[in-house]
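Researcher: Here's the sequence for the chain we discussed earlier.
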Amino acid sequence: RRTTLALAMVLALGACSKEPSVERCPHCGMRVDRASPFRAELDGRGFDSPRCALATRAGSQKPLRVQEFYSRAYVDAETVTFVGGSDVEGPMGPELVPVADDKVAKFKSDHHGARTYRLVDVTADVLKKEGTP
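Model: Thanks. This is the structure I predict for it:
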């Protein structure tokens, strides 16, 4: 009887005390919204924004997937241009926005983007300049 009661209590407490599995950004700890247009993926992990994924990736060659700004399709980060200094902000503020190469001029016109970078050019210094922690 005691065993049954103890087991029932453990099951009840376990069911009530835990919220469903929440994905957290490995860089900043912020909750990652799977539906966010800023979500990025690095090494099979979800990040809340390209800037967090880029900061984590800095100095490595790990493949990075980002959502292209206009299509929202996940693409290899090597295939887009990152635009900084625009009026588009991610979940945590200033963002390096991934834009398809053929849409960069439109994006800069629409959103006042100032600087462009290829993935290989995004260093810790660039991230600092663009307001990325």
